[in-house]
Amino acid sequence: MQKTINLKAFKEFVQSSNFGGFLLFLCVIISLIIANSSLADPLQNLLETKLGFENQAIHLNYSVSMWINDGLMAIFFLLVGLEIKREIIEGELSSPKKAILPIIAAIGGAVVPAFIYSFFNTGMETVSGWGIPMATDIAFALAVISLLDKRVPASLKIFLAALAIVDDLIAILVIAIFYSSGIELTYLAYAGIGMVVLILMNRFNVKNPYLYLIPGIFIWYFVHHSGIHATIAGVLVAMTLPTNDTNIASPLERLEHTLVKPVNFFIIPLFAFANTNITIHNEMIEGLTSPLGLGISMGLIFGKPIGIVTTSFICSKLGLGQLPANSTIIHMVGLGLLAGIGFTMSIFISMLSFSNQLLIEEAKLSILITSLIAGILGYLILKFSCKNSNTADV
Predict the structure, then answer these.
(1) CA distance 369 to 361
(2) CB under 8 Å to 79, separation ≥6 — which residues?
(3) SS (HEC) of 23-86
(4) pLDDT tens readout for residues 52-67
(5) What's the pTM value of the predicted model, to 2 decimals?
(6) Could you tell me which residue, 36 or 15, shows the higher pLDDT?
């Protein structure tokens, strides 16, 4: 009798959050291989191909790479904004008692890496990249901790998610304030009118979440032309979606559920593919030990865990908050290292930080290598610390 192939395990893997991390990693590897092969120039030409249209009134003719970085990534930031608002309304950030520790830990995990980077790059043209090591890639960090499954306390996963969401909010504010070009007030006023429309829709209890996307598209256009980075439009739109603290799915939750898979399985992997096509050469290898490379690597690998662990320990000792249940300082070190996986947001900020293409490529390579090291170290520390604690319980 012929046996049929059991695809259940494969389907479960594809539907799990781990698949998003796997796909992201796969796209990075493929992009690096192409960038260092004879296909490098054709890929670059494809990314520079212009798409869209423009006339005297409308300007929407951009390269493929810009559509990915400014267009599709606005959808990513829309999802991040929805997650932030949901956590504030009903999640781990919904009360001061719940929110204080991940908020302070996220601030520590952002300030210390920025300080370390600035220390290495003070007085140099690369000092503007201080925001690069501040960011945490929430998709990659959660994918790595999910690999440990039930071997880590569930409280650690919740804490990492809350911390990463606050971290994203900090990164969004940094991009909006420090990495936006000269402001065009007319376009900003038009975007403000769009926001008023969305707020009124919220007040009049419009339940269909997709109706909010129509003014949202216009807001994206006006924000893009205002000088503020276009992706901020996604967060602004997200803040107007209605939500609630009940078990009934709100418009916000319905839109969030719709966006999770397209973002994790398409937009983020595509962003990674388009922005990690790095042709590696000697200058870039040398750049790993330059002030730029050291600022990024030291900031992510050491700054993140130092900032997170120190602030968490101080908060717990002062009684301002409690460490995640069943966790120790060693667990927090491992979690801090996972927060050192900068990747998506760090690469994004690096492209806003420099106009020199070589510096951007050096920053990307440093982010890739450092994020890989931070992820492996964080995984190993959590794995062995949880194993030892389980042994001790026996």
Answers:
(1) 12
(2) 234, 238, 256, 259, 260, 263
(3) HHHHHHHHHHHHHCCCCHHHHHHHHHCEEEEECCCCEEEEEHHHHHHHHHHHHHHHHHHHHHHH
(4) 888 877 888 899 998 9
(5) 0.75
(6) 36
